[in-house]
Amino acid sequence: MIADAPALAVVGAGAMGEALLAGWLASGWSATDIVIVDAHRPRVEELEQRHGVRGVALAEAAAAETIVVAVKPHQVDDVLTALTPALVNTSIVVCIAAGVTLAQLAAGLPEGQGIIRVMPNTPALVGEGMAGVVPGEHATAAQRDAVVRLFAAVGKAMVVDESQLDALTALSGSGPAYMFYIAEAMIEAGVHHGLTREQAAELVNQTVKGAGVMLEASEDSASVLRERVTSPAGTTAAALRRLDDHGVRAAMLDAVDACVARSREMAG
Description:
alpha/beta
């Protein structure tokens, strides 16, 4: 590596880029080891002030040990073209853009460059993210392990085959939006039945959090945990029967199918 080169460069300072940046800083990374790149200078200045990191040009970011490309999918090719002249062959290029395949990344970078696809999610901001990691052909085992550790620092990371990434995207990548959507509906229902919005939000937020902790901590499946809350002919059974009447389970399956299909479309 080049002397004094940054350890980590984040190219693209949008919502996901900042979520990861904030999560890595919270996990113990030093702001002096991270640089950011974004075409919108006011955004760079905002993150410099908020997080203490330094904004740089792509040429400087290209010398980093790990380069995380966090731009929109349609911007990836331009970023790779701009990075290429200053890249060093010991760098690992990590792309988190949905639908951008290993083949597309390899085509835009020098032959033999180490590349890894990652699909993270926004709970990385609070150290509870879930990321799928797909190493490219020229990524070394050490680079793969380093990227797994990087994303595990803001939650968990799982190495998967590229053929599995569309399904992973539909579950964990887009999954937080499903949970927020359900929470939003539950809060509205609570307000409808006389709770203040603040009361309903506190009740729902803690319930969603507690259920998630139980799912992770318990050796039992989601089905078993649900059954334990559902007394025969009780209140929960009545509610679940209505969810079944409205086809909520089928709707969720259909939603995941749509997400997988869109992910495949984006990959061409």
